[in-house]
Amino acid sequence: MDLNMPSSEVQLKKECHLYLIKGGKWAALMSTFILFAMLVNIVLQTSKVLLASNIILYMLPVFITIILAALVMRVYAIDEISNKAFLAYLFSLELSWLFLIWMIFDSSEASFSGNAALAGVESIVDVLVLTFAIALFVDRKIMLMAVLPLMLLSFFLRVTEIPDNYFFPLTKFLCFFAIIVSGQRVLYTWFKKAVVRDVEKQHLLKHFRRMALIDGLTNISNRRHFDEILSQEIRASERNNHPLCVIMIDVDFFKRLNDSLGHQVGDECLITLAKLLSSVANRPRDLAARYGGEEFAILLPDTDRNGAYLIADKLKSILTKVKIPHPDSDVSEYITVSQGVCQWQEGMKPDELISDADRLLYQAKLAGRDRFFGAKG
Questions:
Q1: Is 9 marked active-site?
Q2: Fewer Cβ within 10 Å of end Cβ, the chain: N or C?
């Protein structure tokens, strides 16, 4: 698994937190809409059973909680809001609604005819329960913390108003509870599967992208990646006029090594050489690549010809110290390489730069191998 990418468990936890924050924001918007609907209903009522001034006073805690939450959302990004801050907001919003509902019921009791006050309060509670259940379904504990007090208040008011009939409020409470809990489980299961599948998809995409750019044997860049980065670096050099060099590298008498010791030994030689190239070209923008077969390439941005010579000489020295056996080499009993060093010149295309480096590599071979050649200038 890629250590740079989060696991499905970590991502699920992050997505749940983000959804809770967004759900809390949506709950605030819904609360605002419910308050507005209540005000419109009070203004349009024919019999003034509730004074607008009283209801606005009762609504103030909800409004203040929503405004404070909005200010926090403007100051902080969603992922910067902690669980404690969110729970504090949720507790304030819940307490404000409980206060508002209780005050509406208490102040309307003498004015409403029959059970009208109870019906109105129960309608508000049902809407709020649905709102919080949807907004907070990703965390069952938090969701129940939000909906249970509202449901219990509704049950209490019903029993208080109609003390001789427990059947309907108890049945409603149990059914609502069962629907909310089971619905939460279904929605959370879908949510979890969606997050896990998205993480797996991201891992697969990164894996396929890596396979397209990384050589499978040596685990360094392949030719395709090298050519892409080379084109980018040439464009950068054209803009800022910084030097750019390429070193083409070929293992001396590699076919003989495969024939005498086998392809497995040859593969191990290439893997070791790739590691050495990566250790030599170790700056952030340096790039070592397997260009094909036993041929490698090093891209050195912001490096002139003399700097590239130092890298080529360093690679030659490291190979001398590592001493990778090569019994059939005409140059040494150990692995050696020939190198062609070329510096990019203004107007030079990527294929021209590679062609010149290859030509210098061929000259190094003709001169006896185990050396590097560079263009004069």
A1: no
A2: C
- Specify whether the CB–CB gap between 361 and 245 falls below 8 A: no
Mean pLDDT score of the chain: 88
Q: Count H helices and E strands in the chain, helices first.
A: 11, 5
pLDDT in tens, 91-139: 999 999 999 988 887 776 454 444 666 777 888 899 999 999 999 999 9
The span from the CA of 19 to the CA of 30, in Å, is 16
- From 180, 44, 167, 24, select the one nearest 91 (Cα to Cα): 24
Give percent above pLDDT 90 in the chain.
Answer: 62
CB 338 within 8 A of CB 249: yes
Residue, of 203 and 276, whose pLDDT is higher: 276
pTM score of the predicted model: 0.60
With 70 as the cut, is the pLDDT of residue 47 above it? no
> Could you tell me the sign of the dihedral formed by the alpha carbons of 96, 101, 105, 111, in that order?
positive
H or E segment to which residue 96 belongs: helix 83-108
Cβ neighbors of 351 (< 8 A, separation 6 or more) are none
Pairing type for strands 244-251 and 337-343 reads: antiparallel
Q: Which of 268, 294, 346, 352 is catalytic?
A: 294
Q: Does residue 311 contact residue 303 with C-beta atoms inside 8 Å?
A: yes
Tens digit of each residue's pLDDT (9 = 90 or more) over 233-243: 999 999 999 99
Instruction: Answer whether 324's CB lies under 8 Å from 262's CB.
Output: no
Measured CA to CA in angstroms, residue 180 lies from 126, 143, 187 at distances of: 12, 9, 10
Its sign, for the CA torsion 350, 351, 355, 358, is positive
